[in-house]
Amino acid sequence: MSLSKPIGILGAGRAGTALARAAARGGVEVRIASTRTPAQMRYHLLQYAPSATAVRAQDVAQGVENVLLAVPQEDLDDVEPEWIGDRILVDATNRWEEEPLPEWFEMGLAEGLSSSEVVARRFPTARVVKALNHISHWGMDAPRSSEPRAAAIASNDAAAAAEVGQLVTALGFEPVIASNLSAGIRTEPGTAYFNVAATPEQMSRHLL
Ligand SMILES: NC(=O)c1ccc[n+]([C@@H]2O[C@H](COP(=O)([O-])OP(=O)(O)OC[C@H]3O[C@@H](n4cnc5c(N)ncnc54)[C@H](OP(=O)(O)O)[C@@H]3O)[C@@H](O)[C@H]2O)c1
Q1: CATH classification (class only), 7-207
Q2: What is the pLDDT of residue 144?
Q3: If exposure means fewest CB atoms within 10 Å of the residue's CB, which of 93, 135, 139, 144 is most exposed?
Q4: How far is the CA of 134 from the centre of ligand 1 (A)?
Q5: Where are the beta strands (DSSP E) in the chain?
Q6: What is the pLDDT of residues 55-95, one digit of tens each?
Q7: What residues flank ligand 1, with Cβ below 6 Å?
């Protein structure tokens, strides 16, 4: 499937560039940003995401409706919510083992929030959707088998979830939409289908 709308990707590491490659295969135009300037990213992108256009981090949401967040959670203090504004923010982040987190993140988790609910609190004007966090960069690049692989989508904004469903389809996965953002906790590290392929039926049952 081809999605004509361009997307932004914040983070040009393993996850961000794998998402950019999957988007390119799906015919989706990508603007990608990191801590580096577009000129500094040039050779990196030639190797890892040659179809993507490098932009400055503060410009990542310009001209797009969806921004994929692929920055380590420990670095989120340095991501300004104004960069995202009122766009759909697709939170693809996870806490990696004992990764140190910003204080506001630790406090939100201690209250029992899912990690994307904490992200939503940090980005109050954005329409936050949790998606693609449970698929590794290898899984993103893996050839598609005849069995569809599920990608969970969790949001409190049904229209945003549906929009991200179209994007996920373009990336080569089968969207399974959960009832709300908090349900995304079932796709965090340590859960059954984190980095483990699930069919849409398995994922639907798991997200209930
Ligand atoms: N790796 C995976 O398979 C995978 C899969 C799904 C989800 N995730 C999640 O995605 C997130 C990123 O993981 P990763 O493996 O891609 O990490 P990574 O390879 O270390 O890449 C991190 C990227 O974030 C950029 N970055 C850091 N601070 C930034 C800031 N303030 N503004 C803009 N960009 C910033 C870095 O910029 P520079 O390049 O300039 O240093 C780098 O491009 C993590 O939360 C991880 O759990 C990873």
Answers
A1: alpha beta
A2: 82
A3: 144
A4: 14
A5: 7-10, 30-33, 53-54, 66-69, 88-91, 127-131, 150-155, 174-177
A6: 999 999 999 999 999 999 999 999 999 999 999 999 999 99
A7: 10-16, 33-36, 57, 70-73, 75, 78-79, 92-94, 96, 133, 136-137
